[in-house]
Amino acid sequence: MTRKVPSKAERYFSTGISMITSRGLHGPNVMAAEWVMQISYSPVLVAIFIHKGSRTIKNIEKTKEFGVNVASKEQTTEVSIAGGYSGSEINKLEFKNIFKTSKSHKIKTPMILGCTINAECKLVRKEKLGDHVMLVGRVVHIEHDDTKSPLIYHRGRYFSLGSTVEPDRQEIPVSKVTLEFFKNLAQEKFVLKCVGTLVEHENKILVTKWPKTGFETIPFVMPPQGKNLRDHLVKHLNGIQLHTTLEKEPIMKRLVLKNGIDMQRINFVLFKGKIKKPLKEYIWKSKNDEIISTLV
Ligand SMILES: Cc1cc2nc3c(=O)[nH]c(=O)nc-3n(C[C@H](O)[C@H](O)[C@H](O)COP(=O)(O)O)c2cc1C
Predict the structure, then answer these.
(1) What is the mean pLDDT of the chain?
(2) What is the DSSP code (8-state) at residue 162?
(3) CA-CA distance, 296 to 293, in Å (whole number)?
(4) Whole-Å CA distances, 70 to 66, 95, 118, 156, 181
């Protein structure tokens, strides 16, 4: 099959590239595939999407196994040959100056050396999807090489990984006490997820005191995973007799609280609120408070 060069938006997807090894009547084979991804942790399943005209698919249908060899950035030549020729034209793995192979552990198909990941797979599912066939493999043996970096494919060209991009968070220097308070709530969680309300009155923000610590913050809770954040907050506010009308639109604040090298990441989902009667017994804090100033 001649692979049409995509001309439009499809080219803007970014993928890695794998070399799919297989074996069949005509011996072992390798093809290049960008459409490869892990689709389950337990068991570890990998899906590959292969066109029907390939030698590879015939091989896998027969032997019910394949190797996923995730290419490293040094392997552009291997990938170009694996993707540029079909096993029906030439036995690609016989190019000893191009491909270095090794025996596999749990299957009989050879694996390619110099890759970032080598996963030996047993076929568990096959499904035709559009003009390709999805083959799902259960990984029966997997190895990775920390020293290798993956090859990236984008707009028909090869790339290597660039610098890491730090997720954008607003950094707030806070006191040791404040940081300790949030770290205790987070209990080692990478990100503490909170939902709270911002109630403003005469240029001040309503705060409540936390039981035990007496720590004063805007009213918030840490909702259990999967629970609707707004409903959970409303329940909490009613529970503490803070009958509030919340605005519909949420506001997202991604913070990192810092004290020296110590830090805690927090996501605050906030709903602006209005209490029906601004009662005197509520505590109102100035907007200059170390955290509140970044929330308003
Ligand atoms: C970078 C690159 C990525 C490719 N990705 C895929 C893919 O995901 N699925 C597919 O069916 N073919 C893909 N191909 C095309 C096959 O590798 C090509 O048709 C190959 O000749 C098939 O080999 P075989 O007939 O020996 O199996 C890709 C080719 C290249 C160069």
Answers:
(1) 93
(2) -
(3) 6
(4) 13, 19, 6, 17, 44
Ligand 1 centroid from CA 31, angstroms = 6
Architecture of the domain whose range is 170-295: Alpha-Beta Complex (3.90)
Q: 58 CB less than 6 Å from ligand 1? A: no
Residue range(s) occupied by CATH 3.90.79.10 in the chain: 170-295
pLDDT of residue 11: 85
The Cα 141–Cα 104 span in angstroms is: 9
DSSP 221-279: E-PPTTS-HHHHHHHHHHHTT--EEEPSS-EEEEEEEEETTEEEEEEEEEEEEEESS--
The answer to whether 18 touches 70, Cβ cutoff 8 Å, is: yes
DSSP letter (8 states) at residue 64: S
Q: How far is CA 275 from the centre of its chain?
A: 39
CATH number of 9-160: 2.30.110.10
Residue 280 above 70 pLDDT? no
Ligand 1 centre from 43 Cα, in Å? 26
Residue 187: is it exposed, middle or buried by C-beta count within 10 angstroms (0-12/13-18/19+)? exposed
Nearest to 142 by CA among 106, 110, 108, 109: 106
Polymer length of the chain: 296
**Whether 206 contacts 219, CB under 8 Å:** yes
Q: What is the pTM of this model?
A: 0.86
Q: How far is Cα 46 from Cα 42, in angstroms, rounded to an integer? A: 11
Q: How far is the CA of 83 from the centre of ligand 1 (A)?
A: 5
Average pLDDT (97-117) is 98
CA distance linking residue 2 with residue 18, whole number of Å: 19
The SS3 of residue 83 is: helix
